[in-house]
Structure formats: structure tokens, C-alpha cells
Amino acid sequence: MLVPLAALVLGMPVAVSAHEGHKENKSDAEMAQMESHDAAGEHDVQKEASHVTNGDGPQEAVAEQPTPEQALAAAIAENRATSAGDFLGRLHPIAAHFPIALLLMAALAELLLILRPSLALETTVRFLVAGGAGGAVIAALLGWFAAGWRLSDKSQTLGLHRWNGTAIAGFALVATGLAFRSHNRTGLRFALAVLAIALVAQGYLGGEMVFGLNHLGIR
Questions:
Q1: DSSP string spanning 135-192?
Q2: What's the total number of domains in the chain?
């Protein structure tokens, strides 16, 4: 039980720092510097604990090391929401998954409809697009709470994520209108293709913000 708790505690400071860095409008370089400092601090703590365990350090240092339960309680207390806006911003990662899934499934259903018109998936596409658009608007709004209400960001990654997400919400609403009002599906198919590409890019940008730049190791 102690090992999972300790792993959770060690993983929390970076996430908290990243969230605070975005709220403080730090650049990508400043974020990377902050995360490297956090990692260096954790390494120093682990190194000191290792010396104590091996008998290389003073015995009184043992009392200074918090137990996993104490560290977990401290991390939870430090990460408490400070306002209603802060709490709403923390809901963004939860809300973001639903529009991604619904809109990508809408694009897939429309592709199947192109290949097999006899499947009669028009109603399914309308349902998926409408649900995805509603979810995208909510996720985008919560994202603004999470990142702060400003029009420009020092972090290029955050700026791209912010405005790409906002554009996805708006474009999804347009796609919903096309799905319900247009008998010509060309416009809808174009909108869904654009949304699919934008959603993949948005997921990548979100990963860059959470796990660090070049998190896929492809650059």
C-alpha cells in the first residue's frame, strides 16, 4: 500500500507545478526550467534518504523524513482548490475526453456512410456531432478557467492549445448546424475532416502540456 502512495506523491508536484505555471503565464522555456528544478529537488531528497538508510548521514535526519502517508496528506492539502474558478479549471481534463471521442466517432460514422450508404447512419452522425459540440463548448470554457482569461500566452504550446480548442468548439457548432439543416453532406464531411485533424493536434498539445515538450519523443 505504501509504494502506490509514495508513487502518487512523487507524481503530484510536477502536475501541480505545471498547472501553476500555466496559470502564471510562463513560457515553455520557463516551464521546462521549473520542472527540471522540481526533478532536481526530488533527486536531492531521495539521495539524502539513501545516505541515511546506508548509515552515511546523521541519525537525527531520519526523523525529518515524512512517511508516505504524511507526504500524501501534505500534497493533498497543498493542491486544494483556492476558488470556484480554480475548481472549474480542474474539471477541464475530465470534460475534454468526451467531445474528442464523440466527434471522432462522428467522423468515423460519416466515413462509413460514404463507403456504405445503406447503413443509414445519418441520425447517428447528428447525435454524435451534437453531443460532441456541446461537450467541446463546455471543455473549452473550462479550459479558459484552467489557463486563465487572457488573449495571449507566453507559452506557445498553451496558446496553440487554447485557441485550437476554442476553434474546435466553434467549428463543432457549425458542423452541428450542417448535420441538421443541410441535405448536401459535402460541407458536413469537410467540417468533420477538419475537426478530426484538429482534435488529434489538440490531444498532442495537451500531452505536451502535461508530460512535457516532445513527450512522444518524435522531435
A1: HHHHHHHHHHHHH-S-S--S-HHHHHHHHHHHHHHHHHHHHHHHHHH-S--HHHHHHH
A2: 1
| Domain assignment present for 136 | yes
Helix H, strand E, coil C: the string for 78-98 is: HCCCCCHHHHHHHCHHHHHHH
Contact 155, 22 (CB under 8 A): yes
105 located within any domain:
yes
pTM: 0.78
Residue-range definition of the domain harbouring residue 169: 99-209
Is the pLDDT score of 15 beyond 80? no
67 in a structural domain:
no
Q: Is 99 helix (H, G, I), strand (E, B) or coil?
A: helix
> pLDDT tens, 128-163?
999 999 999 999 999 999 999 999 999 999 999 999
Residue 163 lies in a domain: yes
